[in-house]
Structure formats: structure tokens, C-alpha cells
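S1.2 Input.
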Amino acid sequence: MKALLLPEVGGPEKLVIDDIPTPTPAVGEVRVKLKCAALNRRDYWITVGAYPRINFPATAGSDGAGVVDALGGGVDPSLMDQEVVIYPALQWGPGRGLILGLT
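S1.3 Output.
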């Protein structure tokens, strides 16, 4: 699949489109086939090194919308083929990493 990757800190000009393996959702996760995606302020902060605990290469794009196209174990089967919006702040609190959620 195609992804927008940031191989290193250095600003938005360091972003590149590249092929990466299509991920398989883990237990409790879904995979979303994006129909649209956006870069936001968080993505910019990551490109300039102003966001903590980022491992490189990093996949850019915190916001998006699409259709659930794969389910991990324990996920409600009714979510398959549902249109979703990715809401990156869902359950995001102190000491936690980015958690993508469905709305």
C-alpha cells in the first residue's frame, strides 16, 4: 500500500510517498481503507522534531476517513464495511501514545 512517510526530522519537505506492507489488524483493532486523509498541526510538529517519542520512519496523517476493510480478533463483525472517521484523540491521555478511534 502507499503511505506518506517521514524518514527523519527536517520539516514537511522530508515527507515522501512510498510503498509499505499492508498491515494486518491485531486483536481489538480494525484496518481502514482510507478514502481521504489530511495532515494536521500534529503532523507538522512531528516533521520539525517538536513532538515527543516518535520513531522513524513515521507514517504521517493523523486524520482521515474511509471504510473498515479488515478486522482483528475480538472485533464486532458488524464493523466490517462501515464508513468511519479516524479520531486520533479518542482515549488519549497522559503517558499514552496515539490511539485511533472510530466515531
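S1.4 Remarks. DSSP finds one helix and six strands in the chain.
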